[in-house]
């Protein structure tokens, strides 16, 4: 090679060419794979919503098995009868409501106090019962946590699904394990008429979670902050839907 | 080793034992601590590093004569980062479940000092084929330790392997738990990875005294 690779001009040209080449390779990859990644994300949401409703392929007590991606779209349309968006006092129907970015809505609501954020809620039908699935989002110890909560008319939990971005494996990451999620089933958000929420509590007197009226589930050892995150997430996000459920019981919807 | 000459074979096999990047050179410890709480992420991490390292070493080796020496570290970094982003995107598109499980760990490959170390020490000065073997060998040596540590941490810490309960059910008290065995919660915490790596180093050096440094 007869090039003097120590010259400044050569270094700069090399850097520029490298950036252009690498940039186009990555842009090409990102563009080419984008439809597949988007589809995967969409299927995942549908799978999670169905899982919270109890529509899944679980065989054993510890399984977290979703409806496979090739069937999830059809199954989703079968079980979810209506997708509603609540904004202010308005209720509109929108069959893309499950794609609403809750983070973005929250940020907009935070910046502008007069903005009523869009609250998606999915009305489903399972075994002849009407149920309502609410998306929730919050923060754990390291990063975002989120989930879906399936409720009946009286705001009692039928099923939940939790997921997280980067909680500690073996500790906070256990919120997506069945033994934790199953504890929520049957717990109520309301005490009488009051909204109470559900606390992930350390040292409650009910580690096996037999008492379903205490608004508490047993915490995970070593995952206090993640557990508190789940508590806050459920309190804040589900609370926004209380008027909807109140109207439901009085028959105003 | 009929396929490879003796020298090339050594490039591939040495990092697995006597010149292991983790236990002998003590590189790449950070990621070995972070992801070995369970076996499955350890294995996927090993495979991903093997891809990045194999391809990266080849790319650097091909460019070794035209890379300006002043910015060679930056060039190396760009190559690693590009490959890691490609791995991340491909996993997201074709193995979404897996990519979610690994999430941040894939990004962590960029910070793996073994990769930069091999680029700098080997690929910049050697031919393409030899660089490829060196990359695969070192990644395999790294992966081997990851899998061993992951195996013990998951088995002793959670009583499972690949998520399957192999020691019985700790809640229902079946299997080993029936006779009073308990999971060791310490095993899922990062410091225990360091101790397990330490034990591996101890075993390795007591079996091969030549590895012990003179003081």
Please give the structural blueprint:
The complex is a heterodimer of chains A (253) and B (215).
Chain A lengths: L7 H46 L15 H11 E8 L2 E4 L8 H10 L7 E8 L2 E11 L4 E8 L5 E8 L13 H4 L8 E2 L2 E2 L3 E3 L14 E3 L5 H16 L2 H9 L3
Parallel strand pairs in A: 9-10
Antiparallel strand pairs in A: 1-2, 1-3, 3-4, 4-5, 5-6, 7-8
Chain B lengths: L5 H8 L15 H6 L4 H24 L9 H23 L1 H7 L1 H5 L4 H9 L6 H31 L1 E2 L2 E2 L24 H18 L8
Antiparallel strand pairs in B: 1-2
Helix pairs in contact in B: 1-8, 3-4, 3-8, 4-5, 4-7, 8-9
Question: Summary?
Answer:
Chain A is of the alpha+beta class and 253 residues long.
Structural category of chain A: alpha+beta
Oligomer: heterodimer
Rough outline of chain B: globular
In whole angstroms, how far apart are the ends of chain A? 78 Å
Helix content of chain B: 55-70%
Reported for the largest beta sheet of chain B, the result is: 2 strands, antiparallel
Q: Biggest chain pair contact, residues each?
A: A-B, 32 and 32 residues
How many distinct beta strands of chain A?
A: 10
Low-confidence stretches of chain A: none
Give the biggest beta sheet of chain A: 6 strands, antiparallel
Shape of chain A: globular
Count of helical stretches of chain B: 9
Q: Write down the domain tally of chain A.
A: 1
Strand content of chain A: 15-25%
Whole-angstrom Rg of chain A: 23 Å
Secondary structure: number of strands of chain B: 2
Overall structural class of chain B, as computed from helix and strand content, comes to mainly alpha
